[in-house]
Amino acid sequence: MQRKFITSLAFLIFANLLVKPFWLFGIDRTVQNIVGPEEYGVYFAVFNLAFLFHIILDFGINNFNNRAVSRTPSRLEEYFSRVLQLKILLALLYLFVIFLISNIIDYSIILKKLLLLVAVNQILLSFILYFRSNIAALQNFRTDALFSIYDRLLMIILCGLVIWFNILDRTIDIFLFVYIQTISLAVAAVSGMIINLFYGKISFYAIDKDFILKIISKSYPFALLGILMSVYSRIDAVMIERFLPDTGRTEAGIYAASYRILDAANMLPFLFATILLPLYSRMIKEKKSVLKISRLAFGLVLAISITLSTSSWLFNVQIMELLYPDADVYWADVFGIVIAAFVPVSIMYVFGSLLTANGNLKALNTIAATGVVINIMLNIILIKKYGALGAAYATLATEWLVAIWHIFAAKKYLNIPVPALTILKVLLLIAFIVIGGNLLIKTGLQWWLVYGLLMIFMFGCAASLKIFHPGEIYRAYNAEVTDAK
């Protein structure tokens, strides 16, 4: 299992590193610079509003389905067509809720149109994620890795033709940007359907009300968790745009610039979770210990997240000036706080997957509900006074609270310890990064070269401190081969 985790993770990361960073920094960032922070800020607020309610589309089905099919692969045939029927019904409900909310908050006709398009994209994405959950549950991780970049690859090609080759003889705007996403997601969704039909002996049944009610009753804890996590991680952009009538759109755009970088970084722990959930589920069912693989995953995400976030914090001004021509010190201050949240988010992906696989949904929902209350309270207090910077502080505080609670929950329910020595090592690593970074800066080298050297040096320090163990990776990779002999 550990060998499969390492090989699958390596391939998944390699595939995603080829495409998704280029999408975020080559396409998404370029669009933001073309349309400006105000127009992009509107799009980001609308996107986050649609994302807040995206769990209606899933209702916890993907996590439930991944866990169920990974434990008993034959369930794919039983579940597939019935889950599709349920997802179509949920898509209609989602559109109704989005329409209702847009009227309650008094969106203009233009904003309603934009929200509808973004909502359609969320629907298509929900189908793609469902198809991916089946592929991952059957442990076809390489196929899942390739499929995970397919929609973004299509978007890169189409947006690139518009931006750099001007095939439409017009400058890209937010609506065209969203239309391109719609086309790409639609093609990817159809492709995902075909892949699922290829992998499983799929039977199509008439609408089964009893089965739908059964799925809803089993998946609602997953749905509640998804709703709560969406609120505390996405409501900030909506609150910025609504709470600041004069500067809200611009502040939302500034916040979006930093948050999109955090989104790019979060790709790595998300890929960990994509593989960890089905592996954890099967290992727990087979009563195998998850201690080693949890320790391995935790050490890796700690080393990566601490090195990346601290190094980026040191060079916050240079990074923002490189990516955004309009950026100033305020933009950099926001980014420095937002990117610091990468560490707790990474921790949550590892332990959240473990607790989900173990069925500790009540604990996870309690943690997430507390996070929602604290995040909203902090945003109400801080956004009106500090704008995007206040939202960044609220995000950082909430993510750390939730991450620490995840660690204690894993200790309580699965006896996964985090020794005090590990915490000391983490503090030492952060100190090494800050000291080493300042020493390298004084050498007079170009900042990007110092940044790269610092990343390599500090990842080596993480290995030396044994925050993660390179030897464990090697042993895990070769364990099954040795056993087979």
Keywords:
mainly alpha; 485 residues; 20 helices
Overview of the structural elements:
- The longest helix is centred in the middle third of the chain and has 38 residues, at 248-285.
- With 485 residues, the chain is mainly α.
- The chain has helices spanning 2-35, 37-52, 55-58, 61-71, 75-104, 109-137, 141-148, 150-163, 174-199, 209-243, 248-285, 291-314, 316-323, 329-340, 342-357, 361-386, 388-414, 420-441, 447-464, 470-484.
- The two termini are 16 Å apart.
- The model is unreliable at 479-485 (pLDDT under 50).
- Helices cover 85% and strands 0% of the residues.
- It has one domain.
- Helix 15 packs parallel to helix 17 (388-414).
- It contains 20 helices and no strands.
SS elements, strand count: 0
- Let me know the largest β-sheet: none
pLDDT < 50 stretches:
479-485
Strand content: under 5%
Question: How many individual helices?
Answer: 20
Average pLDDT figure: 84
Q: Provide the helix percentage.
A: over 70%
Return Rg in Å. Answer: 22 Å
Structural class: mainly alpha
Shape: globular
Quickly count the domains: 1
Could you give the order of the helices and strands? HHHHHHHHHHHHHHHHHHHH
From the N-terminal CA to the C-terminal CA, the straight-line distance is 16 Å
Give the helices and strands, then pairings.
Blueprint: H1 2-35, H2 37-52, H3 55-58, H4 61-71, H5 75-104, H6 109-137, H7 141-148, H8 150-163, H9 174-199, H10 209-243, H11 248-285, H12 291-314, H13 316-323, H14 329-340, H15 342-357, H16 361-386, H17 388-414, H18 420-441, H19 447-464, H20 470-484
Helix pairs in contact: 1-2, 1-7, 1-8, 1-11, 1-20, 2-6, 2-10, 2-11, 4-5, 4-6, 4-11, 5-6, 6-9, 8-9, 10-11, 10-16, 10-17, 11-12, 11-14, 11-15, 11-17, 12-14, 12-15, 12-18, 12-19, 13-14, 14-17, 15-17, 16-17, 18-19
